[in-house]
Structure formats: structure tokens, C-alpha cells
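Entry type: protein chain
Record version: 2
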Amino acid sequence: MLYGLVNIFPKISLMPLKKFRDIVIFFFIVGTSAVVYPAASLIFTAKQNGAYLAEINIEETEISGLADISFFGASGKILPEILDEMKTALL
């Protein structure tokens, strides 16, 4: 289990649907080398617009230093644990 994620991911306040839709709050980078463009540019665009970057990968990548938090291991195991913690934090 991943401890402490309740404190890492803040609760999202209610906001108008249009505003919520136009803002990326969390950006998950999962199982990628982050070097294939143009898709890799989305990481930088999200970060420049204030998104919280969470990297999930087997090993460190070129964008690990840019990520707000990195988890190293199998994404099939780690991602469900993160999502469960986030659901708990948001309820």
C-alpha cells in the first residue's frame, strides 16, 4: 500500500464544469520513456499550466526530475493503489 497519498493529492473543490474541463489538475505519466514526440510534449505543456505530474515507470526517465512525484515499479500494481488512495482522499 502507498502511504501518505491522502496528503500528497489535495482534495478538489467543486467548480463550474467548463472551468474544470479546461484545467488539467493531475497528469499521470505511465510506462513511457517520455522521449517520443509529439506525445512527450504533453508532459511539458501540462507542467507549464500548473498540473501536478505523477510519473509511474519501471525506472527513472528523462522527465523524472520534472515530475512532482515518481513511483518506480510495475504500473499495473502501482496505478490502482494510487487511484484507490485518491478516491479515499476525495470522498
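Comment: The chain is about 35% helix and 15% strand.
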